Amino acid sequence: MQITLLGTGTSHGVPVPGCSCKTCLSQDQRDIRYRCGAYIWTEDTGILIDTPPEFRLQALKYQIPRIDLVLMTHNHADHVSGFDDLRRYNELQKEAIPVYGNGPCLAGIKGMFPYIFDDAAQIGGGKPQVNLIETKAPFIYQEKITIIPLEVQHGRLAVNGYRIGKMAYVTDCNFIPKESMELLEGLELLILGVLRFRTHATHFNLEAGLRVIQELKPRRSLLTHICHDFKFAEMTSFLPPRGRARL
Ligand SMILES: [Zn+2]
Ligand SMILES: [Zn+2]
Ligand SMILES: [Zn+2]
């Protein structure tokens, strides 16, 4: 399995327009963060997690060859705004792409992109061809890849994380219910959204995220959805040693 983090920035991205903090002025490429998404290649299948606003740029930067299915975490703008650019992959693959998400997320996508789902809307330069599939329970994609959606809380909103094999992707949450924690046991890799040092109403801060990592003890963890409070080169000084926290 090959996993590419297409972006690791919070909803504003980093640098933040108009900000002159040391992270936003940094010349370090690791301080330039597109909005969050991931691309997973496994079993000859390309899986996209979320369609962030920079999706087209990410597809070019990481040379995404094909997208067999899309897993949506939730329909906040920073995770969905690049949805229209899926149409290029319809052109390449000449078929509709299945898009999985929970019910509210899929309803939100329909509301944000009504023309895609309106057969009477003129096609013009093309519309994405997608099949929206509501998913809560684990499913097996084409009899070869088991995908486990797990519900986590993003403030009052229930959003999906996903586990595929021994990898899990959980962004935008501030609480993981017990049933979902159990589904996250025995991981090789946990990708976890952690916003900043200070607490936040709908996201884990660093301290809370590290507590989750300590409890689950994945072999390796990567933090994503991080804001400009975190200057990459300084992070090692305040993250626990690799062996102890398994970071
Ligand atoms: Zn977000
Ligand atoms: Zn800044
Ligand atoms: Zn969100």
Write the SSE topology.
Layout (H helix, E strand, L loop, with lengths): L1 E6 L29 E6 L2 E5 L5 H7 L7 E3 L5 H4 L6 H7 L3 E5 L1 H10 L17 E5 L4 E3 L3 E10 L2 E8 L2 E4 L7 H6 L5 E5 L12 H11 L3 E5 L7 H7 L3 H4 L2
Parallel strand pairs: 3-4, 4-5, 5-6, 10-11, 11-12
Antiparallel strand pairs: 1-2, 2-3, 7-8, 8-9, 9-10
The protein binds zinc ion (3 copies).
The site of one zinc ion (ZN) has 4 residues, from loops.
Which class best fits the helix and strand makeup?
Answer: alpha/beta
Strand order of the largest sheet: 1-2-3-4-5-6
User: Which sheet architecture does the biggest sheet show?
Assistant: 6 strands, mixed
Distance between the termini: 20 Å
The tally of structural domains comes to: 1
The CATH H-level superfamily is: Ribonuclease Z/Hydroxyacylglutathione hydrolase-like
Class in CATH?
Answer: Alpha Beta
Which of globular, elongated, flat, extended, rod-shaped describes the shape?
globular
What bound compounds does this protein have? zinc ion
CATH architecture: 4-Layer Sandwich
Chain-averaged pLDDT: 94
**Beta-strand residue percentage:** 25-35%
Low-pLDDT regions: 243-247
Radius of gyration: 18 Å
Helical content band: 10-25%
CATH topology label: Metallo-beta-lactamase, Chain A
What's the total count of β strands? 12
What's the tally of helices? 8
